[in-house]
Specification:
The protein has helices at residues 10-26, 71-78, 108-116, 119-122, and strands at 34-40, 45-51, 54-56, 61-67, 81-88, 93-105, 153-167, 174-179, 186-188. With 191 residues, the protein is of the alpha+beta class. The protein has a single domain, classed as Roll (Pnp Oxidase, Chain A). Strands 1, 2, 3, 4, 5, 6, 7, 8 and 9 form a nine-stranded antiparallel β-sheet that branches. The longest helix has 17 residues, at 10-26.
């Protein structure tokens, strides 16, 4: 039996969300370590997978790293609404998070995180072509690291405004909402 079937108190559900996302930051084998992020421009909604780098359950924000020259940045500059989707096949849990994105680039937060990163992780921010640029051959992409922080290294903080938790079960689905405007006091909704 899945322990999530016994979750009948929305406060317990919020605590379980806090636990799995906190674990997702540290455990690269966790289903909650990667998640899908959706941003939009005037014409399209774009979705991509990112790595959960931080989750703060008290302040209700999460963050991921990205390249400043990626499409995500230009989209977020125009519209900072963001949607995050986590799914655990093992737990049968879907967590949808909506919020406002804050772009951090070339600031003290970036410098602090940069110093703590591995050299291998830093390589991603020293490539010679911007993400999404048309190239003739994948071998054209080269990485040229140096000792300074890459100006492309960017941290996106997501200020969480809404959490939509869904447990999928053949015995009956369960769904709960948590809204910032209600101090994240949860309530049940029909799945």
């Amino acid at each position: 039996m899945n322990p999530n079937e016994n979750l009948n108190d929305v406060n317990e559900i919020l605590e379980s969300i806090n636990r799995v996302l906190s674990r997702g930051v540290k455990d690269r084998h966790s289903d909650y370590h990667t998640f899908s992020v959706a941003t939009s421009d005037a014409n399209l909604v774009n979705n991509r997978t990112v790595v959960l780098r931080e989750f703060n359950h008290d302040k209700k924000y999460l963050c991921y790293h990205t390249n400043f020259s990626s499409e995500k940045i230009s989209e977020l500059k125009k519209n900072n609404n963001i949607a995050c989707l986590f799914y655990s096949k093992k737990d049968k849990i879907q967590i949808r998070i909506n919020g406002k994105a804050q772009i951090n680039n070339n600031n003290q937060l970036c410098e602090q995180k940069w110093k703590a990163m591995s050299d291998l992780s830093k390589l991603c921010y020293f490539q010679n072509h911007n993400p999404g640029r048309k190239i003739a051959n994948p071998n054209e992409v080269k990485q040229s690291p140096n000792d300074s922080m890459s100006k492309l290294f960017t941290i996106i903080n997501v200020d969480i405004e809404k959490i939509d938790w869904l447990y999928l079960s053949r015995h009956g689905h369960k769904r709960a909402f948590f809204l910032k405007k209600n101090n994240f006091d949860g309530y049940w909704v029909a799945p």
